[in-house]
Every structure is written in structure tokens, then in C-alpha cells.
Amino acid sequence: MKKSDFHFDLPPELIAQAPLAERSASRLLLVPPGEGAFEDRGITDLPDLLQPGDLLVFNDTRVIPARVFGHKPSGGRVEILIERLLPGNEARAQLGASKPSRPGTRITLDGGGEAEVLGRDGAFYLLRFDVDGALATWLERAGQLPLPPYIRREPGADDSARYQTVFARNTGAVAAPTAGLHFDEPLLDRLRARGVGFGHVTLHVGAGTFQPMRVDDIHEHRMHSEWLNVGADLVAQVRATRAAGGRVIAVGTTVVRALESARQGGALVDGELQPFAGETQIFIFPGYRIRSVDALLTNFHLPESTLLMLVSAFSGRERILAAYAHAVQARYRFFSYGDAMLLFPSTPA
User: Fold this and answer.
1) What single string gives the DSSP state of each residue in 281-325?
2) From 28, 113, 150, 255, which residue has the greatest number of CB atoms within 10 Å?
3) Tens of each residue's pLDDT in the chain, 349 residues
4) In this structure, are residues 54 and 244 in contact, taking their beta carbons and an 8 Å threshold?
5) Are the C-beta atoms of residues 117 and 147 closer than 8 Å to each other?
6) What is the CATH classification number for the domain harbouring 333?
7) How far, in whole angstroms, is CA 81 from its chain's centroid?
8) Are residues 296 and 318 in the same domain?
9) Residue 274's CB: how many other CB atoms inside 10 A?
10) How far is residue 95's CA from residue 218's CA, in Å, rounded to a whole number?
């Protein structure tokens, strides 16, 4: 299977550059199971599309202001994009500079303090930050929100709130779990009144999510590593939901990746999900059967991306590409600040 099997043509003007005035104002493309016709709905229709006893699973990761700037002793400008916070005010990061940075190089930071290059970790640099207080706290004051590369503007005042979900609580991501951005408190209240339950996992989305696939044969691709936690409380909710005949609905591909990683890494007992915390490099593409969820709410994804391959594994490649063609014709808004789809699997979980 080739990367080009997941190509589609997208007019650039359909790439959403800013959020709508209200989180829940986005459109929703309903992609029912089988050959059912696509339906153009709205996110506010979600309570009517779900059933009492269903469980929505959200990713509660919180995006850090992970982009900072500084200069080397030579005066050369440096852009630092933190990939992951590490103990001891250290971080794994990408460095944007005119020349590679050697171990021992000290970068004077615009926000105060310095960062020292310790070495390399694959495609990333290891840095130690000498700043006022804990690095995570300093970033909240001195860092800049790392908007995706296809948003062609600098972050504004609204992005600090709108590029976070309303349930974000565990700091560590450098990109938002974008399907969750559609939920505001009034919509959550309506879902509760409908009898829909809420559960949470944590998967800290890394900057690697925006990296293009560099091989044509998708079997040769190796995913970047991300940290996740599927806790015992969520596992109990999933079991109770399934036992009562309810459906488990993932809010975003990161939730699918977390639950499927837990299925693989958590040592299934009697075929049931187990708690799991740790790293994942799971790569889901057609041929892989997703068993952890019964439906998936997700935004639209980039052509030839691993996330487009994941949703194709869930609902079928031809079905997904047909839905994307419909979305383009109907002028849906694409990517992080765009509209959403509610997908059902090609085969039942």
C-alpha cells in the first residue's frame, strides 16, 4: 500500500485559519456505517446522534506554549520548538537555526535565561534550561503557542484559549487534540442531560504529528513516540458501558491511538482493556482492525497523512475518500480549526 493511495485534492481556501466565534458552531459530516448516505449536520446535533448510555472518551492533554526564541553567542537567531518536557528543566526540542548546534552551545533566550545544548536524540536536540523557576511555569509566561504549520499567521490572543480544549488538564502536548476543540460547556451539559457519559485518557501530542511521511511504501514508515495514560477509572467506564450495551465513542484519533496502544501494551485479560501508561509508536492503517471504539468523532486530516490512514482503517479507504470528496464539494473547513466528521466502522468493534 502506497502513501499516494491516500491523496486527495484540497483547495487551499478550505484550510481553516482561525476558529469560529463559538466552539460548537462547526459543521459535522455524518458518515454512517455501510453504504448509508452522508449527512450534513452540525456539532450541536451530536446529542441527537448519540444514545443514553454511550460513553464519549476525550483526550485531556494540555498544550504548552512550546515555541521560544533566542540567539547564539554569534548573534544567529534560534527558534526552539519543545517536543517534550523532561525532568530537571530539560527538554527534547527541534532547533531552527542557520547552522547545527554543537553540545555546549548556550542560547540566550528572549524571555530571560539560557538554554544549553546537551546533545542529540535522533532528530531532536536535548536542551537544559537555566530559567527562573520550573520550565513548564516559565513557558506559560515566556513561550508562544505552537500553531500548526498550515495556519499562515502568528498566534493571537484568542489562540491561547481556543487552541485548548475546555477539559485540558494534564500539561505536555505541543499540538491540540483538535476534535475536542468543538466542545463547550452548553454542549457538554446537553450531552449529560441526554445520558451520555464522559471519560478521559491522556496522550501528549508531539510535533511529529505534523511531519510528512517520507517513504512511499507505508509499511516502511516508523511513527514518532508519544506518551499516554489510560487509567483504571477509564477502563472501568469502558467495561461498564459495553456491559450495559452502550457504545464507546472516541473524540479524536489520539483517543483511538491511546486505547489501541493500551490493548497492545496493557496485556489483555479475557479480551478486556487493561490500564496502561507509557510510550507508544502505534501506526494504524488499513488492514489493522480497531476494536476499542464503536464510533469516532474527528476533524479532517492532511492528504497522505498517518491520521488519514487511521480513519481509513476504521471506516474503509474508499468510504473515507468519498466522504472527503463530499466535504470538499460542500465547502467544509479543514484541519485543526475546521469542521468534524462522525465516523462508524467498516466492521463492528
Assistant:
1) -----TTPPP-S-SEEEEE---TT-HHHHHHHHHH-HHHHHHHHH
2) 255
3) 999 999 999 999 999 999 999 999 999 999 999 888 999 999 999 999 999 999 999 999 999 999 999 999 999 999 999 999 999 999 999 999 888 899 999 999 999 999 999 999 888 999 999 999 999 999 999 999 999 999 999 999 899 999 999 999 999 999 999 999 999 999 999 999 999 999 999 999 987 777 788 899 999 999 988 999 999 999 999 999 999 999 999 999 999 999 999 988 654 455 678 999 999 999 999 999 999 999 999 999 999 999 999 999 999 999 999 999 999 999 999 999 999 999 999 766 5
4) no
5) no
6) 3.40.1780.10
7) 17
8) yes
9) 15
10) 27
Q: Are residues 90 and 238 in the same domain?
A: no
CA 94, 95, 101, 106 torsion-angle sign:
negative
Taking CA atoms, 55 is separated from 189, 196, 244, in Å, by: 14, 6, 11
* Residue 256 one-letter amino acid: V
Which residues contact residue 194 at a Cβ distance below 8 angstroms, ignoring those fewer than 6 apart?
Answer: 47, 50, 52
CATH number of the domain at 111, please: 2.40.10.240
Lookup: cell for 88: 530537571
CA dist 109 and 79 (Å) reads 10
Query: Do 90 and 216 fall within a single domain?
Result: no
pTM score above 0.85: yes
SS3 state of residue 94: strand
Listed residue (198, 177, 186) closest to 246, CA to CA: 198
Give the ranges where the chain is alpha helix by DSSP (H).
46-49, 135-142, 159-162, 185-194, 232-243, 253-265, 306-315, 317-329
- Domain assignment of residue 182, yes or no: yes
Report the C-alpha gap between 14 and 333 in whole angstroms.
5
The DSSP string of 115-155 is EEEEEEETTEEEEEEE-SS-HHHHHHHH-B----TTS-S--
The residue count of the chain comes to 349
Tell me whether residue 98 is in a domain: yes
- Reduce the DSSP state of residue 237 to 3 states and report it: helix
119 and 19 housed in the same domain: no
Q: Which three cell numbers stand for residue 56?
A: 464519549
Spell 30-43 as b/e; 16+ CB within 10 A means b: bbebeeeebeebeb
